[in-house]
């Protein structure tokens, strides 16, 4: 599933002229929801380790999609916010990502698709809470 979703995501965004990886899209989406979040918080928000998010933040900053400043609360931390270009590319990517979601789960009817999404969300929420019982 991961390989299929990554492949479809890349193909559809590339066809739309958008240069974002799935993790970059997730990071931009999280930054929209939590402007000024630090890199550690962003790592937690997208379920990646801090080193990975550091590299993602570097690339997004190089693309001009985010701004990164030293936190006034903790001089060791870097706070991230979307730039105007980041807001524009996220707005352009969202309809493409929404449209490809059914393509990632071929062979499911609407009820099955909704059930899959609900079960995946339930499992993700339980994993975040550390609940390993079923």
Kindly report the CATH topology.
Answer: Arc Repressor Mutant, subunit A
CATH class: Mainly Alpha
Secondary structure class reads: mainly alpha
> How many helical elements?
6
Helix content: 55-70%
How would a crystallographer describe the biggest sheet? 2 strands, antiparallel
Write down the overall geometry: globular
Mean pLDDT: 90
Count of β-strands:
2
Distance between the termini: 22 Å
The CATH superfamily is known as Winged helix-like DNA-binding domain superfamily/Winged helix DNA-binding domain
Strand content: 5-15%
Taking Cα atoms only, what radius of gyration do you get, to the nearest Å?
16 Å
The string of secondary-structure elements, in order, is HHHHEEHH
Sheet with the most strands: spatial strand order: 1-2
Give the total of domains.
1
Your description of this structure?
The chain is mainly alpha-helical. 65% of the residues lie in helices and 7% in strands. The protein has helices at 2-15, 22-33, 39-45, 50-62, 84-104, 110-129, and strands spanning 66-70, 78-82. It has a two-stranded antiparallel ribbon. Strand 1 (66-70) and strand 2 (78-82) form a beta hairpin. Helix 3 packs across helix 4. The longest helix has 21 residues, at 84-104. The two termini are 22 Å apart.
Identify the notable features of this structure and list them briefly.
6 helices, Arc Repressor Mutant, subunit A, mainly alpha, globular, 2 strands, 134 residues, two-stranded antiparallel sheet
